[in-house]
Amino acid sequence: QILVDIDSVIDLFKTEGLDDRVDEGQMKVVNSRLYRVVRILEILGESINLLQTMTPSDFLNFRDVLINCLWVSKLPVSNAGE
Predict the structure, then answer these.
(1) Which whole-number Å values give the CA distances from 79 to 12, 72, 82, in the listed order?
(2) Which residues contact 36 (CB under 8 A, 6 or more apart)?
(3) Which InterPro entries does the record associate with it (predicted)?
């Protein structure tokens, strides 16, 4: 979702050109999409902070649950060491 929102903001600015002004309606769209990106990153950071409170053995027990989550399964993580 982060990449989709950032790409759409870039596309909005590309359509206006360098010399043109972006109209107020488009700036509201830009603002809301960038705000969503910021919120996603804040929540991601909070989630990582929560995981850091776990002991290594707690994390190993919890890891199987994480692997089944959609967002974790799309991360570029290799299982070659297992």
Answers:
(1) 39, 13, 6
(2) 1, 5
(3) Trp/Indoleamine_2_3_dOase-like, Trp_2_3_dOase
How far apart are alpha carbons 12 and 16 in whole angstroms? 7
CB 12 within 8 A of CB 26: yes
Model confidence pTM above 0.85: no
Residue 13 CA, chain-centre distance (Å), reads 21
Cα 54 to Cα 33, 35, 51, 74: the distances in Å are: 33, 30, 6, 22
Q: Using CA atoms, how far apart are residues 1 and 33, in angstroms rounded to an integer?
A: 10
Place of tokens 């010399």: 19
How do the pLDDT tens digits run along the chain, 82 residues long? 899 999 999 988 887 665 567 778 888 999 999 999 999 999 999 988 988 898 989 888 888 777 777 565 566 655 544 4
Q: How far apart are CA 19 and CA 11, in angstroms?
A: 15
